[in-house]
Write a structure and sequence with these properties.
mainly alpha
Amino acid sequence: VPLTIPLLTGPAAISTMIIYAQRARGWWEEAMLVAYGVAVGLAVYLAFSASGRISRLLGRTGIDIMTKLMGLILAALAVEIMADGLKELFVALRAAPR
């Protein structure tokens, strides 16, 4: 759990929400962001509640495979966040007076 909690509510999660909130074009899209947050929170609660049963079902090999897959997903998310940040930086630098 100590590694999981910072990944769920850490800087990457907050940055992602800020980026997507900035792209929202109205109250409907902002409401959908809140709904997604609630849905993710519910899914995390259910997964944490069932973690013992899931662990027994997957076994050691299954857990190792899932760990590698989650690492790959986390790396992809990091690349997406960096790409979005660099894109915004280049737009700002191009618009800056010389």
